[in-house]
Amino acid sequence: MRLVIVVLAALCCVATAASKQPETIDVWLRAGVDIDASGHVQDLQWEEQSKVHALIAERLAPVVRGWEFEPATVDGRPAPTQTGLVIHVLVDELADGSVTLRLADAQTGPTASTLMPPTYPMDAARGGISATVKLVVEVKADGSPVIREMTYESSDDKRSGYRDAFFASATEAAKHWKFRPEIVAGRVVPGSSVRIPIDYCLGTASQCQRNQRARDVERKLPTGLYQGEASAVALKTDIRKQAI
After folding, report:
1. pTM of the model as a whole
2. Are 226 and 194 in contact (CB under 8 A)?
């Protein structure tokens, strides 16, 4: 597939790391997928994103519908499953100014769909305290999260009194988050959890962005995209051999 250079210019605005004349751009697409007991795709629902993402998703849809999965099981028997799907696409610029698309990776599991940002605790902001709160949330069948674990890291370990304020901020924000759960045979997968790090940063925009990029490299996902570390299904199709 070849797209005109106008699309490439638009992609620069949505890629994880863009420059004025990129050679390769990372694009991530999110979807929900229904898999039957035989491991075949029965339904595909793309998450709302940019027009460029929609264009690529339209091209990808028939490819994804042809994928085969290792289905989840209930009492040892394959069962229909609903799960989230994250697809990593590489966009390569060619010498003539057009671009080609390559599939880099695809992962299933519960995914975050709406994450309301937290408010910065006022006392901590006045005190110049930056912090990171890491949450592990279990996803319920209705897509709401239940916080199972919270950890705290601060720029000033000597003043730990701010921890409760940061925890309260993160807890309040999580009340408004929504996820796409993983459901097998009509029931949510037990222990289906997602890790969400929240960076409270008082540095310059560039400093905060560098910190976030470092964390994204560790997570292997772009900013704002979060997925569970485990899934009840597995992709059997070798997508690296597929053309878009």
Report:
1. 0.81
2. yes
